[in-house]
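In this supplementary section we document a worked example of the pipeline. Step one takes a protein sequence of length 214 as its only input; no multiple sequence alignment statistics are reported here. Step two produces a three-dimensional model, which step three serialises into C-alpha cells for compact storage. The input and output of this example are shown verbatim.
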Amino acid sequence: MLKRIFLSIALCAGLTTSINADHANLHPTHAELAKEATQEGTEAFNSFVERAYESARMFSPFATVMPEPVNNTSVDFELADQMVDYAARFLGTRYILGASGPKAFDCSGFTSYVYKNFGIKLNRSSRDQYTQGEKVNMADLQPGDLLFFSSRSSGRGRVGHVAMVASVDRENNTCVFIHASTKKGVTYQKFPDGNYYSRNFIGARRILGTNLQP
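The serialised model returned by step three reads:
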C-alpha cells in the first residue's frame, strides 16, 4: 500500500514538473518578453528612421541638386602644355562679342577655338561649356581646365564668362588663366585675385581625359 502511495506521489511530481516546464516554454519570463520587445522596438525604430530619411531625401526640394563627383580623370600633360602654348599665340588679340577667331574673340569663342585646334569640340557659349566635361575641385586644377564666372551681363550666380587654366602654383594654391577679356583682349590673369574674379567664380570643369577628347 505504501509502495503504491509513493509511486503515485512520484508520478504526480514528475507530471507537475513536466507541466511546469511546458508552461515555461509556452509562457516566457518577463525578462525574456522585455528583451524580445526591446529588440523588436529597436528594429522597428531603425526601419522607421530609414524610411523617413529616404522619404525626406526623395521629396526634398533639393532632391535634384545632387553633388557631382570630384574629377579624378588623368590629364594628358603634354597635350595640355601644347594647348597652353597655342593659346598664348593670341595674346593681345582684341575682344569682340560673338567673335570666334582668329582675328578677334569673345571668351567662349576663344576657348572653343583653342580646343577645336586639338580636335575637341566645345559648345559655343560659356554657359553651355559649363555643362561639358567633369567637375573638378580647385585643389586639383591642371592646365587646360576651364574656369567659369558670372559676369555683369549674365547676373550673379549665372555663368557668363569662361577662361582656361595656363599654369598652377600648388605651393600657394593659385593659378594663372588665359582668357579673352572685354577690356584687354586675350590676356593672362592670376586667380584667386581677391577681387572681381574671386567674387564671381562659379566652378571649374575638366575636358581633357573625358569622353570629349578624341
